[in-house]
Fold these 2 entries.
Entry 1:
Amino acid sequence: MEPITGRALVLAASAIGAGLAMIAGIGPGIGQGYAAGKGAEGVGRQPEAQGDIVRTMLLGAAVAETTGIYGLIVALILLFANPLIRLL
Amino acid sequence: MEPITGRALVLAASAIGAGLAMIAGIGPGIGQGYAAGKGAEGVGRQPEAQGDIVRTMLLGAAVAETTGIYGLIVALILLFANPLIRLL
Amino acid sequence: MEPITGRALVLAASAIGAGLAMIAGIGPGIGQGYAAGKGAEGVGRQPEAQGDIVRTMLLGAAVAETTGIYGLIVALILLFANPLIRLL
Amino acid sequence: MEPITGRALVLAASAIGAGLAMIAGIGPGIGQGYAAGKGAEGVGRQPEAQGDIVRTMLLGAAVAETTGIYGLIVALILLFANPLIRLL
Amino acid sequence: MEPITGRALVLAASAIGAGLAMIAGIGPGIGQGYAAGKGAEGVGRQPEAQGDIVRTMLLGAAVAETTGIYGLIVALILLFANPLIRLL
Amino acid sequence: MEPITGRALVLAASAIGAGLAMIAGIGPGIGQGYAAGKGAEGVGRQPEAQGDIVRTMLLGAAVAETTGIYGLIVALILLFANPLIRLL
Amino acid sequence: MEPITGRALVLAASAIGAGLAMIAGIGPGIGQGYAAGKGAEGVGRQPEAQGDIVRTMLLGAAVAETTGIYGLIVALILLFANPLIRLL
Amino acid sequence: MEPITGRALVLAASAIGAGLAMIAGIGPGIGQGYAAGKGAEGVGRQPEAQGDIVRTMLLGAAVAETTGIYGLIVALILLFANPLIRLL
Amino acid sequence: MEPITGRALVLAASAIGAGLAMIAGIGPGIGQGYAAGKGAEGVGRQPEAQGDIVRTMLLGAAVAETTGIYGLIVALILLFANPLIRLL
Amino acid sequence: MENTNFIMQFLEWLMSFDRKAVILAASAIGAGLAMIAGIGPGVGQGYAAGKGAEAVSYNPKSGRQATTVMLLGAAVAETSGILSLVIALILLFANPLVNLSGAAIVVSASAIGAGLSMIAGIGPGIGQGYAAGKGTEMVGKRPRLQSSIIRTMFLGQAVAQTTGIYAMIIALVLMFANPLIRLL
Ligand code: NA
Ligand code: NA
Ligand code: NA
Ligand code: NA
Ligand code: NA
Ligand code: NA
Ligand code: NA
Ligand code: NA
Ligand code: NA
Ligand code: NA
């Protein structure tokens, strides 16, 4: 009969925290999709500038990805390298 | 009368964390839909550039998918390869 | 007065997790609707390109559906093939 | 039989707080994606101004990143330099 | 056997409050990203007005940052200068 | 052995209430960023009207700031001049 | 040993309710910022109509403020003139 | 030693319900601000139609206010004329 | 010492459910405000069509109101004609 | 036996109630959550209304036709709001969960899960309303192309409905064919 320990509580909260952190991914999804749409529009209008357009789109999308990555990193830390249970 | 164990608490929280992580999917859904609309608009205007437009749209949409995939991966980890219960 | 078992707690959390995962469906709904609007606009402007416009709209909408499907899959797993209760 | 301590409660709440703080990342993701789209559009229209466009886009995106970084910093403080447990 | 004290409860709530306060950062992220996109567009169209455009963009972005800073300050107060535990 | 008092519960809830109130800051951040973008666009198009444009932008942004300030005030009241604990 | 009373529970919930009510402030912040942007744009285009533009912008912004004020009033009632504790 | 009664639980939930109801105010704030921006734009373009524009803007804004008022009414009912405690 | 009854629990949850239902009001507020803005713009463009424009705006706004009304009805049912407590 | 564990204390407190009370309380919250879907149609139909007003101002002659398209498109955009209302009313007036056997906490969580699931309806509501607005705009501009514009609009709206349908299925499964209580 193993009761709920403090360790279990911290790990349970970590699972929820990891899920919450992933919600940040809404942002890059919307933003990069906007860039994709504008890129497709631009390529249709100026096919000769396709290289420049796609390169700018991808550069901007890379910048827009960062906060999604931050969320992923915090989630992976909570799941795989949980620093909180060491503080118990 | 089997009491709630710490293991059960962590697994319960993992179910909720997995659900939360999927919410990230809102972003790619909106963004890629925007790209789809812009792609359809562009193809209507420059049918001769259809190939370039659709390719750019799909490239941009692939980039916009990533944070949705991150959310899915975190959810699948919580469900199928839960690293937290090993820390109990 | 029936006591809560660990199994019940995990299943209860799975029901809530399934509900949360479906919220991802907001994204494809908005995005595909945007594509629908742009498609209707394009068909009105270039009726001769209707086939190309609708095909691009549907292709883009299919891409935008994925994260909604991910949410559905995670919900179905939680409801019908719950892997968490096997870990109890 | 180890009960849940106050320390465990604070650490569990810190895991959830860290997850919540990451949600700020939605903003920069959307905003920078918008900038990426506008940058790609601009480069297609005025290829000769590509340098200026991309530089302005990146400068503006850097400004838009800050609140995402604030969220990350608060999450990392909660995870790695938790000041609250020192107050117990 | 140290039970959960009122002090621990207040500190745990402070961790969650700090995380919630950071969510304000969504706003400046979106807004400043919009300004970045409009700035990049403007610089492409009127390169001769680049100085004025960028200066206006940064001035407006500074104004848009404030509520993100408010959220950060409230979070830092909760974490580092918690006034609530003095009221216990 | 100091148990959780009503005072502690109210103060804990105040920490969460303060965090929630800051979420209002999303609004001014988005709105003022929009104004910044429109201001930068306008200054690029009509440099001769820069003074009027910037003044109108700042006036409108000041109006848009108010609800963010309301949120901050409510949070500071909860943290520094908590009227609820006097009602206990 | 003072246990948690019903009075304390109501006051704690009032703190959270006050924080939730402030979230309404997102709306006026976005809306008035949009008006600010449109006002700045209009003033740049028709400087001769500046008086009319700004007056209409401010009138519309005043209308848009109301729901933010409602939220503030409900929060202040909960904090300073709590009618619920009288019903205990 | 006054324990938490059912009455206290209902009143506490009413405080939270009142706060939640106010969140509806986000909508009118955004919508009316959009109307304000469009009104200001229109007045700048057709100053001779100012009366008609402003009247239409205010009529539309009045319609947009209703759901914010509904939220306020439900909150005030919960706070000042709570029908639920009579059902206890 | 009167313990909390099941009736009280249901009524407390009804207060929260009523508050949640009102959040639907965000939608009509945004949508009708958009219609108000477009109506004002249209009236400025063709003042001679004012009657038709306003009538279409109001008709569309009436359609957009319904889900706000649904939310209000569900809230009022929970508050004034609670069918759940009859099932107890 | 005094339990010092606050999670166990809370769960024991919850289970001290009549099982029906816990399920009905969760149903009240689930009904409230389901209504949040109403944000979608509100935004979307309002967009259509604005586009309708705009179309009338551009082409007063085709105004009536554009208004008809606005109403058609907006009717489709109402779907998720109606579905959510139905789920909420079932939870309130014909609650299938209250007489379900099995652990009360699972049945209660199912009511909340059903409500959460319906929130997905925000998406189709906004998206279909946008399509309605664009359809209205184009029919106002090119009334002769009404049939192909409307057909494209409806096709796109149908595609945009799917995630709302998925959500309703999950809600109905949780309410009427709950697979979780079989696992107890
Ligand atoms: Na970024
Ligand atoms: Na991505
Ligand atoms: Na996708
Ligand atoms: Na920033
Ligand atoms: Na600001
Ligand atoms: Na304001
Ligand atoms: Na208002
Ligand atoms: Na309304
Ligand atoms: Na409606
Ligand atoms: Na779909």
Entry 2:
Amino acid sequence: MAGLGKFLVRRGLTFVPTLIGVTLIVFIIAYVIPANPVRAWAGGEKATKAAVELIKAEYHLNQPWYDQYLFLIKGLFTNSLLDPLNQVPVFTNIGNRFIVTFQLALFAFFFVVLMGLPLGIISAIKRNSITDMVLRILALVFISTPIYVMAYLFIWVFFIHWNLTTLAGIPPAPPHQITHIPVIDSIITLNWSNFVEQVQRFWLPGFTLGIAAAGVLMRFTRNSFLEAYSRDSTLFLKAKGVPKSRLYRHVLKNALVPVITILALQFGGLLAGTPITETIFNLPGIGLYALQSVMYLDFPALIGVTFLYAIVFVTANLIADILYALVDPRVRF
Amino acid sequence: MPEPLIEIKNLSVYFYTYAGIVKAIEDVSFDIYRGETLALVGETGCGKSVTSRAITRLIESPGRIVNGQVIYHKDDGSKVDLLTLSDEEIREIRGNEIAYIFQDPHSSLDPLYTIGYQVGEAMEVHGKVKNIKEGITKAVNVLREVMLPDPENRVKNYPHELSGGMKQRVVIGVGIANNPRLLIADEPTTALDVTVQAQILDLLNELKKKYNATVLLITHNLGVVAETAQRVVVMYAGKIVEIGTVDQVFHNPLHPYTAALLKAVPNPLGEIETLESIPGTVPNLITPPTGCRFHPRCPFATQTCRTEVPSLKEIEPNHFVACHRY
Amino acid sequence: MGNNTKEAYEEREEYEMSILDKISDKIIDGVALFINLIKRDWKKRNQSKIQEWKLMAYALNRSPPALLGLVIVIAYIILGIIGPYLASWPYDFFPVMYNSTSRLAAPGSNVFLNVTMVKNWHVIHYTTTVHYSIGSDLFGRDLLSVLLAGARTALVLDVFIILIGPTFGIILGLISGYHGGAIDEIIMRITDMFLAFPGLILAIALSAVLPGRIQNFLNYHPFAQTLVLKLFALEPRDVNNLGKLLAVFVALIIVWWPGYTRIARGSTLTERENLYVEAARAIGLSSRTIMFRHILPNIIGPILVMITMDFGNVILTEAGLSFLGLGAVPPIPDWGNLINQGAQYFPQAWWLVAFPGIVIVTVVLGWNLLGDGLRDILDPRTRRSMEFKVKKKSRTEGGESNA
Amino acid sequence: MEPVLSVENLKKYFPVRSLLRTIAWVKAVDGVSFDIYPGETFGLVGESGCGKTTTGRTILRLIQPTSGRILFQGKDVTKLKGKELLWFRRHAQIMFQDPYSSLDPRQTVFNTIMEPVKFHGIKVDDPEEFVIKLLESVGLNEMHLYRYPHEFSGGQRQRIALAKILALRPDFVVLDEPTSALDVSVQANILNTLKELQKDYGFSYLFISHDLGVVKYMSHRMGVMYLGKLVEVGPSTKIFENPLHPYTQMLLSAIPVPDPEIARELKAKRKMVKGEPPSPINPPAGCRFHPRCPFAKDICRREEPPFVKVEDDHYVACWLYAKS
């Protein structure tokens, strides 16, 4: 583990170009392609010339492109970049929303792991049986169903029919904040009633968001397990006289190596896949914020959101790498 | 009269593949005597590995043992047919009384566990040690036995930290950990370099002497056979064609296939004028040739060879051949 | 006991040709004959290839899920081509202008219309009754008709996005994997950038930003304008809605290549290790020949599977964007947009979510089933085993003279 | 006689990279020199990782050498460009070890063989006729013309590879373990075909193998490689009769001989076989073999032994035979 620090620094450095690239792409989209967004920020058609000029000056829009870009990035880092629509720093806007999205992704991830892993393993162990076929088709159905169709189906079943969830508002965070993720805090502080509230509000969006990823994970786990099972080392274990339960333990550990990487990436993917879910379930998260910023041509906000997404993606990759190295002794930092 | 340890009788293994039934071995019978090294020789796909794996029913789906008996003579004199045991009973025998060493040491070991764990596990699952911790402690002794340098520290190593030769020593260590009666070595040196191969063969010989174990050696390398084995079983296309002592088979090969095979190997220390090759190709085992399976490639083939399956006949003491010429 | 199973298996060893097999044989022979007309000696030189195709068809015929997928996919393609002409009502006919009860009419209802419209400078007046078999949308349009017309929108976007995005991605991946070194590093960094970008967000941003530009372009290029209108089977007066529709198209192409670059690069790296690549270099062949003539045909199998499945994913994503209100806007017929309309009136107007939803799920599932099946069919091992059985069959039929 | 090919002090180092820095070099080939004469087979033996395969590929410029000269018919291969490189590509060919990956699975036999012919602009009146003739000369026939590689056995594939080489009529062929993936009975067949073709067309071969028996059967002269260096070069018969270098002696005593009596005798001599080849990343100083050598002296640990001529044409790099 001695090399972990060095490894993190080295990997961190390779991420810099990615982050710069991603923000540049947004920047190009925002400033090169469209018509001038300033008018929209200043209040639409009725905006006065003076107001427009003021905004132009404030966002360095009269400067060359690299100055504009640097202004944006510097603003992001010092959190001094204001969202032109509500005059609040972009990252302050994002901060509160990110907690909602993170909690949503956490719930989704819970369902992904809960369904994807065991079902994938069962499918592999019972390969080529009826169970396997049913599970495989189920996984394909999960993958093929659009999230919005799934969402309305679930709303109809669980909200309208059985009323097992709430769909409005956001339950308050428990009074005692530690991680700032309400559901985790409510568990840590043993605040049972708050925990129930959080679950009631978030379980259905999480389930809906996670179901496609669960299908992907099922298929991946199945293949990975079968691949590990077909290795020569499995035969050698059998020849050693190892009982079945122990044999599967070996196979599972080997199969998990690639699965862990996928899981870390899926968590990043879940965070990014939230705009539709948040729209349908009316959750004020960053997905919705991104969507709104696009609608109102609010590019400072959009650049902030994509920057955040890129950080999430890069971190997910990093965590995947670290987990990989932890499980597989062949990988060293 | 030597005393048999294992009697294999009319063993047939088929693989039910998508393409059809591969008759991997058919009607294979031979004995393994206590304390000997018996070599099972043949070319790729002749069924030698399948035979060795069928002894403890290590046949993976889509393969299936369709016929035969494997009579195991226990130390206490009782006999048991390994093919009729329950899954749990055969598991008790695998790795305990009959152990395996496979060809490729790189893929035999689980990359995610230390070698100490893997050797210790072999003892633990057969109740030789109380728990894995004790197993790892004892593994040091086992690894010393297989002459792995610095075993005290090596037990903590993962397979990838070892060279090919050292890995194969660990695999052998797993094999001998429980002091088995029969050690089945399936091409144990094919993946290794010549100098390492020589050392591994020496190690096997020494261990065999020390523990008075029986070894079934599967190989395609006639040189390895000549120097390690006492008796030889030659297989061709899923059938046994010849059985005899090493000297009998090498100096007086009876079956045309054995004779041709011996002439096709360049001997680095002898004079080689021209190598003789066997015409034709190895038959497909889904539709094997009728009669003697070697007849399409045999220079002496007659009408009888095409229609009748030859059976094993004893031509001289302990020297059997399956050929219509005798 | 052992004997019983033995015989049971032996009986199954030969391959029985089913009707499907005979049909697929005929089709493939026909295609071969056709190519032979253009290229002399083609049939003779490609005997093995024709045989291979037939075997692939047999493998397909034996896999019910893949066959189901194929049927769905063919149906989707046919509907995509002729769907707009099958629709009983044109997509730009808004009954709600003549009778407000036609707005969100329930399935099975009939609405009487008293139509007054201007056509070719003439005022036309007539009455008619619309039967809504599966309900109507906000504009009182017959949902079934809009769904049928929407098939064209979906298919055209689908095909063109997949034709352009992945092709670009594969070429980049090949170059990156084959050359390695600095070129690889640069291409992969750029690819990483695009992968780090959540595709949906990028697509959202692009589809919000691009319409103006595209609309401008179309207005200055009448030929492109007509072409696009024809492709999507739209009426000329919808020309001002094209910008938004094509914005989605461009956005998805930009989002859709990096995955392919990754995959193609990975397979190229593995394939490059094969000695035939080295053999080709030993002859002196150029990198381009080696990449496109030797490596590409050998790595295309798994990529084809991915492409097949992505035909479904493009539909999902495109409909997702329309659901968010980006891309196609009414009156352009679009499945995702129908759900968007329905969402505001859910669960009252459930049919607006349910039926387009079912259509999308079916089509996407079809592509996925086909892709899943293709994985097996394209696997040479499956083919080899079929081949063996077919040969054995023909040998037993041919009698002993052949042996 | 002029050599077809002479290799002079050939070196190939592969960088070991960590991120962007090179942290070490794998000295795969480290100063190898030998000549090959027309119509001759030069054998190159050694254990895995000794650099014999890299040597073969570097000679054909499939890998760019780090340093050294390769003279092919008087021209330095390492500096060839454009037309001259194409000329070289036509006259020097390679046959690979693995028959399962050395043919493009998507090309018919006809295309596989015709591609180089077309590429090098060789005029052929009737391509079909031409390919059939080639196939016949390696023991295949016109039935095989439009088939794909998967329809052939390993031995047949190697024959197709041979026919492809024959089509260009090269002067020199690198045979990189051409039979080590094949069964013995098929191996004999291919080896004999190779010998016949050499007799008929006067090819020169560089025969790379780890199988001493096969090398003895095939080659006129041979070199023994250890960790990127040649340790002994000479006529094959002499090396087998009188191996000079301790490594060669070790190799010869380690090979299993298919004769029970000789094998038993050899076993007694086995004692000297010990150790495994170390990694070529940080090869031992001095003579690279010294950690495994039973005769290692002080000087072996310090200085690299020079190549000395012991008898006609028989060279060895060992301090036992050299004066320091």
